[in-house]
Amino acid sequence: MYPASPKLGLAHLGASTFFASAHPSESCGSNGLPLTPNSIRIYGRARALQLINHPHLSCYVDIHRGKHERIRVIQEYYLLNLKGACNKYPEIRSHTGLAQIAHQVLQGLVYLNTFGTVTCNLSPQNILLDPHGQAKLYNYGLYYMTEAGSAVSFPLGIVRYTAPEVLLHGASQDGGGGSGGTATVTGNPAWDVWSLGMVLAEAVMGYQLFEKCEEVEGLVAEVLRTGLAAEPLKHLAKTHNSTQKLDAAPQELRDFLCTCLTPDPKDRPMPRSLLNHPLFRTMTISAPLNPILPHFPVIDPSLCLIDFAQYKAKLSEVENKGTVLPDYPLIPNSDSPLQANHTTEVIKSEQKDQLSERSMREVYHLWQLAGGNVEQELKKQKLIRTKPAILTLPSVMVVEGEVFGGDASHQQQLEATTIILPLHSLRSRLAHVAAHKYYPLITQRECGTDDLETSRLPLVIRERDVEYQLHRILTFQRLLQAYPYKADLVKSEARKDTPPFYRSLIWAALLGVDGAVADTYQQLDKETPTLTDRQIEVDIPRCHQYDELLSSPQGHAKFTRVLKAWVVSHPHLVYWQGLDSLCAPFLYLNFNNEALAYACLSRFIDKYLHKFFLRDNSAVIQEYLAKFSHMIAFHDPRLANHLHSIGFIPELYAIPWFLTMYTHVFPLQKIFLLWDTLLLGEASLPLCVAVALLRQLADRLLQFGFNECILLFSDMPDIDMERVVRDSVQVFCSTPPSVTFRQHQRPTSERDNNSHLPQSSQDLLMTGVSLAELKGEQCPQVSGADLLELSAQRRKSRRGLAKLLLVDVRTSEEFARGTLPEAMNMPADFTFTPEGSLAPGPNAELLTSYRGKIIAVIGSRNNWGQVTEFAEKLLVLEFPRVCTLHKGIEVFRASGALVVPS
Amino acid sequence: MVVSVRSEECVCELTLDDCGGRTVSVSVPVSIPSTICPVELAHRLLHHHNIPVYLHQELSEKLRVYLRDRTEEHHRKQDQRAVDGLRDGKVSVAEVAAAWATKYSQVKKGVDEGCESEAVGSMYHSLVHSPAAANLLGLEHSFAAAISSLVAQREQALHDIHERQTQEMSQAVSQVGSGLTDDDVNKLAARHLEDAQLAEVQWDSTITGLRESQKREFHNFVTESFAGREVLTPVTPKDFVTTSSDMVMVEVAEPSQEESFTIHLGAQMKQMHNLRLLSAHGLQLCKYQAHQASDIPPQRIQTSMSLYSHNLNGLVLLVDDRINTYTGIKREFGRVCSKSTELHFPDVEDQLESVRNTVPQVVQWRRDHPPTQYDTDDSAQPAPSVPQHLKAGDFYMTRHSNLADVHVVFHMIVDDSLRSGDINSRHPVILGLRNVLKVACLGDITTLTIPLLLTNSMSEEMTMSWCQKRAELVYKCIKGFMMEMTSWGGAEMKNMQFLVPKGISEDLFQHLASMLPNIFRVSNPLVVKSS
């Protein structure tokens, strides 16, 4: 969330596209696996560019990967670039104007260098000017995302502005193709200094450089010759007959140009030292030059001051922004006049356009929800021209994998055109949303979306509804800014639904991530080899690899770091296979914020998988599975009986479910749906999910024998996840809490401090049951406290049938001596016929009428076998929700709940 | 473009001032250019070497500056070397310029190859998805009918000539000695041959003439109606009903055995595919099924509508290594193709011709890329000579607009090794199938038909167990390839059809069908039977 993505303002969302180069057929990496497609490499790398937030660098909004190695980039865009602006506005053409631009470009470059890369693509076309006359570098991330151009077949940059040494390197190496992973993206910042010098020299002289050379060959030669000259600037002036124009420029500007165009790379200064050039003496830096790491929650002590500094810088930026340049082309010419009018109107009445106050990423997200599709737009504006597939097929392919004929190669030059994504449909969709809705008041609980009709529709519709999502985003933005102070409110809002846009942060908030997240993560050693490295390395290339992000080399690297950090920071726990899957959703959501991914993972494991990753975790898992069997018996006796009879025990299928919290069995999109609810619930919710899953498959399972069941679960069939979520919540609500009690669950603060309670109440609580006992029984045990509470509810309800039926199975004499009020006596010895069915009688009828309610079997702890046997007989008769009283009726003695039946 | 592959190792040595007056010196090896986070490195150093925590800030700042400076220096040196090289004349300006020129020329090609076929293709595609489709398809259909009737007439006429000549010849032969000499018979034979050839040439030229005119008219029709001009259909669908209703060659589709399955592949992300096993002759998919002569067959509409789309249908045909249409299944295929005019692509013969012209390139390539010899000991053994033609596992492709259910035909070269019972997954034809799937994936072919037993017809040695073994191999390999396909970044294989020769026993068919769900793990079988 912080630093936030810049606001839309008067910017356009521009889309451009290019192809990654294809690998030569059948080439393999050094590990023998097929090479990662270049488009995936680019995709994984480009994510980090979204972190860039600087007033002189246009924001990378999003990037997509299409079929056949196509990459689509969405970036902040303005219609005017340096070239156009110089022609249009004398104040920009003027020497002071150019100096101003140079200063701003340099700031952008310095920021980029600190970020760890260079642009290598500087040209007048790539320096945009926003309506306030501020320079914004465009397309500067190409060098970074294509790993120094190694993932594309076209050369980066425009030859006429490229530094001579870059041209020399380029000529000596094969561009694009094979070299996998070795490329560095640091680059030499001095390359861009040369380019800046060339761009400025061109602007000062007023001529296009090397205009006469049309062929690449000539251009390259000219640039090299300029580089060879002792004084390139003079050389340029001479060859372009503009020595006079140059002489007219102030001394400082000329000196600056000369410095930029230093022919020797070793003497050429870096951008950061150029910022101190006398030319910029009167100018101030517009924003901090150091990238800020993303952080959450906002009150991260280490970053408060930086934020403050940034805030101050922002204020000054607002002040000196000044007015919009006159006649600035705010809208593309191609728009129809009607739309154009509409848009200008909106833009002129700037106060009213709330959308421009939203961040670009948010606007783009909404635009997509409103039906926007970049591929369609690119096609519509003829930037993607696909040849029909049938015309591109090869004519011969040999067994070695080489193709002949055909025209499948997408080897194309970089298409410099950028198209503008039309926002008017989104604007009109949101036109009626009142301005105050954009600023929801969270302290007064006015953040509801309840007045929208959409809020009552199914989740699938809500997730796709623009207006609804807008409201959700606005609400959550505010709430998350107030986190952790507003943690409760985040939770209660998340109960309605989780907007995908803020899912990563909402999850972090639900998990209670707090403290110096980034700092903690930085302190962990993620490099030093450990014993688990090998296993991690093997597991990662098999974990959710259908996803582009997680299968990219960057994804793998981040995976390794987060997993290693977890292993290092939890010395009492070990890496079990499955931890990788567990990490996947967090890494996917927080791809640009490893620290948060790590923090979420740790919190999640603490809460839901407490002790699961012990070196010897068998006791924990066995208890979990035994509880799971009990849950099946409790909720679906028919299925439980069937699975029991064929010997299909949870050990055979459910371990990966719980150990990975279903991340090993479902694709990410389904996990998101599931976890949105899972994270809201108790640590026992996963058990309910498993029951809901079995329920959905029950029809098939009931017909299947052992082998078919094994097959069914070895390859998980398609599941309706929304139904699972709904069912699991229902299962959770209809299960007394003590049924899912586990000895090894994480002690919550309440339960931890039981010792202060009087003995009478302690008796009523659930305590650990030995594993052997758990496995020996088929029905779950319920605590006395839960029974009392359920009976209390019974008294409150008016209808005759309550949720609960108490069955006392002791002999009638014992029963007469004291039992729970409203308990029914069914002595174990007389209730069942030898065949196992209920012996007829009034009590049996009453029992049958309670089928479907909770039936608690009560007996003495001294005759425990009797109790479990009774419960299991009921189970065989397919009575659902049968449970036994934990530790027998004796638990009530101290509390005085027992009465003598009348 | 600028890849600094070389990196250097160097040792970073720093001294830190402890507040107590002592100094801590740190030396750590780093590789330059480096992308290590200095903050993390500093933490690691503190942790492993027991350096006081309060030195962290200083250490990380010093590391940052050091790494930055060294990285920049590294680049500078590299750049300086390059520039010096130019100055010293190690490389000349012209060389570099030429290198860049070739670089650009490589990528530029293919940008503006908007050939005519593409233009016609896109026009056709939009027309066929518009109300004008009925006219267009009617036209195509009438063309097809005209050609096929002409072809039928030709066959008939040639057949008649042949009959007559046989009769004359037998007469002549019987009279040899009694009035005719051997010489006469020879002359007769020569004349017969001449007659037959003449007739054939005449027919062929008539047909070719019609084809050419049809192509022209079709092209004209497409461009004109795309431009929005009303075009008089040269032949309306009704016209030919009278002329050719008795002539249209109609293949009566024999009932074939068929079974379909829906499967999901993939570990977490399930991808749905349809699988179908059918017993039919390979070319049955190419021929139009029985239909009323006046109606446009439904497959025709379907095929035409998807011709320029991203859902193509492909068929794998097994052929020998001679690229022609003279023998066996190739001859039959040629006949099916010639039944109607190929209106969009070159005629099948021309396509094959261009394939034949590609073969020398292939041979040259093979020569340049000999298979890697892993056994260095066997160097004495001469490398196997490169054959002058395509070999087993290679395939060539032809494109068609006039076949019933197929747009693209993969002609897979096979040899006799396939008859043996013990081929494995490294057999060239299996590898060839993988290549077929790859091309299909990259070329948007989403329906593919493969001969399951890798044979066109059944023979003696193909026993029940042979068939089972072969089917298992192909199923398993295809499953593997399909799972691999998801990483190729192309189209999904929506329908995969396995073809077994027509006329295999019901038993065997059932057996093969029952293997399929086991191997592909059909979790939710949907069985549709038609027989």
TrEMBL record, chain A:
Protein kinase domain location is 1-280
The GO molecular function terms of this record are: ATP binding; GTPase activator activity; protein kinase activity
The answer to keyword Hydrolase applying to this record is no
Give residue ranges for domain Rhodanese: 800-901
Q: Where is this region: Disordered?
A: 739-759
Per the record's keyword annotation, is S-adenosyl-L-methionine included, yes or no? no
Q: Which UniProt keywords apply?
A: GTPase activation
Q: Which residues form the Rab-GAP TBC domain?
A: 497-682
Tell me which Gene3D superfamilies the record gives.
putative rabgap domain of human tbc1 domain family member 14 like domains, Rhodanese-like domain, Transferase(Phosphotransferase) domain 1, Ypt/Rab-GAP domain of gyp1p, domain 3
PANTHER family assigned to the protein according to its UniProt record, in alphabetical order = TBC DOMAIN-CONTAINING PROTEIN KINASE-LIKE PROTEIN, TBC1 DOMAIN FAMILY MEMBER GTPASE-ACTIVATING PROTEIN
Query: What name has this protein been given in UniProt?
Result: TBC domain-containing protein kinase-like protein
Species of origin: Petrolisthes manimaculis
UniProtKB/TrEMBL annotation, chain B:
Superkingdom is Eukaryota
Q: Which InterPro entries match?
A: Fy-3
Q: Which GO terms describe its cellular component?
A: cytoplasm
- Identify this protein by name: Uncharacterized protein
The species this protein was found in? Petrolisthes manimaculis
